[in-house]
Design a protein that fits this description.
single chain, 377 residues, alpha/beta, Rossmann fold, nine-stranded mixed beta sheet
Length: 377
């Protein structure tokens, strides 16, 4: 493992020109007038979005904004990993690694950077942080090892080596979706350096021993009902990721439909993605996926974690959960006792709003909860 080096995002003009050409050549299916979102992506909405992607979206402006953050890359075991490394204003920040999930990128966590590196200036009560925000292996500007079995445990080990390589001996970890799984295994496999973990999703289910409470039974029933109509993507991606990945890697329209339908369904958006996030944010994320060709390797997370599973021990490290009402099923909030089967829960905050991609949806709520938790331990 060598030293980290500064990195700037720069997408070639020919890649952007090819993207616009492909968008304009999209072969659209014939819509049914009365079908909007019931069968997946709304064709009318997507056509408008792609018109803007090809003709109005200013990637160079967004690229300049992304490069206003301090990016670095580091090679670990032959794999090049990308991360944003934003240090506390004034120094003496608590080191904290925050990891996104699918279908997301490091972009989801950028709204937290000013709030946590300079909390006092932004009305956040608590300590400042040195933030490390990596791209998961195979996402965006991080490579994925060319083998199977790159599961939560493997990534957790990479992240420990990343933090050690940056000179941190004690640090916190956090994340959502796959990032929550990675933080969990950081805390179980090598707990010594880990101060605590902060999770915004319930990625790892506990083993059930003993009878369920009424609240736990209701929660599992709600999740099963949700999965029956919403989890088709997971079945495909955990069995045949390469098949669907070929199509998504070749079609900007297909890529946008596959990803943004999830962002609409899993967030507290009220069904209005543009108002909730803004088209420039959504298209920045999609352009990162497109320009780096990272949709197929990102799908492999589902395969590797299903067919190379790992089961964590009880997490003794202090754990905080930020509980968002629109995390997948709107009524799918887990009871605290469910997560206490697996985690040493020290903080449990039920949020008034927000969903699966909480750092992008409600950055102030997430930042304050992180600061309050780590400030208390």
């Amino acid at each position: 493992m060598g030293f980290s080096i500064s990195f700037s995002i720069s997408i070639a003009d020919e890649v952007l020109a090819d993207l616009r050409s492909r968008i304009r050549k999209t072969r659209w299916p014939e819509p049914i007038p009365e079908v909007t979102w019931e069968q997946g992506m709304n064709i009318g909405y997507l056509r408008e979005l792609l018109d803007y992607w090809a003709g109005g979206f200013d990637w160079r402006a967004r690229e300049a904004w992304l490069n206003s953050f301090p990016h670095e890359r580091l090679t670990i075991d032959g794999t090049v990993l990308h991360f944003v490394h934003a240090k506390a204003v004034g120094g003496q920040g608590i080191p904290l690694i925050l990891t996104h999930g699918w279908p997301s990128t490091f972009l989801e966590y950028l709204p937290l950077v000013p709030l946590l590196t300079d909390p006092r200036a932004h009305g956040i009560d608590g300590p400042a942080f040195d933030l490390v925000i990596p791209s998961l292996p195979g996402y965006g500007f991080s490579e994925r090892p060319a083998r199977v079995g790159v599961n939560y445990r493997v990534v957790a080990g990479l992240w420990h080596r990343l933090m050690s390589g940056l000179g941190y001996s004690r640090y916190g970890a956090g994340g959502g979706d796959f990032g929550a799984g990675v933080a969990t295994f950081m805390a179980t496999d090598d707990p010594g350096p880990v101060i605590g973990i902060h999770l915004t999703n319930f990625e790892i289910a506990p083993s059930v021993e003993g009878p369920l409470s009424a609240a736990e039974s209701a929660y599992l029933a709600t999740n099963e009902a949700w999965a029956a109509v919403e989890r088709g993507y997971s079945s495909i991606q955990s069995t045949k990721p390469q098949t669907v990945g070929i199509g998504l890697n070749d079609s900007p329209a297909g890529l946008a439909a596959w990803i943004l339908e999830k962002w609409r369904s899993w967030t507290d958006s009220g069904g209005d993605l543009d108002t909730r996030f803004g088209r420039d944010f959504l298209l920045t994320m999609l352009t990162i996926y497109w320009a780096t060709g990272s949709i197929t390797p990102s799908l492999r997370d589902y395969y590797d974690n299903r067919w190379h599973p790992v089961t964590p021990d009880f997490v003794d490290v202090p754990t905080a959960f930020a509980v968002f009402a629109h995390e997948f099923a709107p009524e799918g909030e887990p009871p605290r006792e469910w997560m206490e089967r697996l985690y040493n829960v020290r903080r449990w905050t039920v949020m008034p709003r927000g969903g699966h991609f909480a750092p992008a949806e409600e950055p102030r709520l997430v930042a304050q909860d992180i600061a309050s938790f780590f400030g208390s331990i």
